[in-house]
Amino acid sequence: MAGKRRTIISEENLVALLQSKDQRGFSVLYDNYSSALYGVILKIVHSEEIAADVMQDSFVKIWRNVENYNRSKGTLFTWILNIARNTAIDKIRSQDFQNSQQNQDLSNYVNTIDSQNSTSFDVDAIGLRKIVEKLRPEHQQIVDLLYFQGYTQAEVAEELNIPLGTVKTRIKSAISHLREYFIVIVLLIFYEIVSLYL
Amino acid sequence: MDIKAYISSGILESYVLKLTTVEETAEVEKNIAQHPEIRAEIFLIEEALESYALEFAHEPPAELKIRIMNALAKEQLSVTSEQKGSGSFVTDSISQVSDDELNTEDKVLEFRPQPSATRTWVAAASWALLILSVGANIIFFNRWKGSEEKLAIAESQNLKIVQNEEILKANYEQELNILQSPGVKVIALSGQPVAPNSKALVYWDTNSESVYVSSMKLPEAPSGKQYQLWAIVDGKPVDAGLISGNTQMLKMKSFGKAVAFAISLEETGGSTTEVGPKGQIYVMGNV
């Protein structure tokens, strides 16, 4: 990379580049978010080949719809994550995907693939994985159903056997746990680093 | 509107997860625009889900970027040709993005994602830790350097002590050997009027006819002067040797017989038996 001039641009400028359909903006977007998007897509479609197609479709959708993105409504990352997620969920619900995956029980499949694909948040190195596993909330299930399997609230109500009216509050408590869970991870990492110096 | 109740209703989480109906979405967006607290809450929810999504991050195949950038270039091309209102492709205005173009651009744009609350907090904590760590390193480095210096001093002092001790030990062993051998006479030389407090001991081994001077308490010899031991034989002083340094015990010249010993302060190099002591006698004692 020697000799290249690097220009740091803000999220605001990146959005401006994207909205003016500047290739450089999409290149930067790809470099920064491709592994996050690809990971989520892969978790939904469970095939590298299909994931690559879904990635391409997602970027085309981002390209086509970026004018509609409004920073005041949320972060760019969440916006593109939702596009990638929806594209992937549409894919697994499409007829040709269904045909190719016949007789596969999706939710069982999800659990087996998860253990192979979910290691990139690598806390192993500092020996925290076990603690984190214990803390991982059972609330994860509801988030996974919504986030990776594209369940509607009605489907969640049916799957978890709860009244439709309580789904929202369940989602709320699940995400609150998720928030706490990440704060705990941050604290644990912090604690590990501090303890190195004591 | 009760904002707390609204936040705790769970509708914001559903909104971020795109689970809300069109009407609900419009309502949430209206509320976001009106209430900064709701907007802040939305960002926290987004951040939690973003962190969750990052747990599954997976590097895509390397060639995928080229494929996607080419797809976007085609997209741009079709938009351009639509705008021109002609069916023909304007191929020279927008070319396909090649591998080279993507990788050897002179100017590389880099994007720093907007710092979120947690990221800011982690960043701040990291900086604090870095500063603490650098501070601790400086303190420990200085302590270590100080310790190294002290250790070096202590080591050299220790070496000197050991050397001195060995010399002392050798001297005492020698002195003890002499004192324990039969036929050794100990002659105490006492201070003369010049220096009444001076004294010295002479060990005279009559068997081996060896003479030693020891335990000297004499004023320090001024520069250019030196003490000299004399034996009184047949009523005359005989040169018994020069006393050099501060050594505990010196072996001097031997005699068949002597009736007394004395120490005088002479010019450096001493006097001779023929001339006799020229300086003053400091200590003297009879056998």
Would you give an account of this structure?
With 198 residues, chain A is mostly helical. Chain A has 2 domains: 8-106, Rna Polymerase Sigma Factor, Chain: A (Orthogonal Bundle); 121-198, Winged helix-like DNA-binding domain superfamily/Winged helix DNA-binding domain (Arc Repressor Mutant, subunit A, Orthogonal Bundle), CATH 1.10.10.10. Chain A has 10 helices and 1 strand. Chain A has helices spanning 11-19, 23-45, 48-65, 76-93, 95-100, 106-117, 129-135, 140-147, 153-160, 164-196, and one strand at 5-9. Chain B has 3 domains: 3-104; 113-180; 184-286, Immunoglobulin-like (Sandwich), CATH 2.60.40. Chain B has an 8-stranded antiparallel sheet with strand order 6-5-8-9-2-3-4-7, with helices on one face. The model of chain B is unreliable at 85-95 (pLDDT under 50). Chain B starts with a helix and ends with a strand. Chains A and B meet through strand 1, helix 1, helix 2, helix 3 and helix 4 of A and helix 2, helix 3, helix 4, helix 5 and strand 1 of B. Strand 1 of chain A pairs parallel with strand 1 of chain B, so a sheet runs across the interface.
Kindly summarize this structure in a few lines.
The complex is a heterodimer of chains A (198) and B (287). Chain A is mainly alpha-helical and 198 residues long.
User: Tally of extended strands of chain B?
Assistant: 9
Overall pLDDT score of chain A: 77
Described by strand count, sense and barrel closure, the largest sheet of chain B is: 8 strands, antiparallel
* pLDDT < 50 runs, ≥5 residues of chain B: 85-95
Radius of gyration of chain A: 19 Å
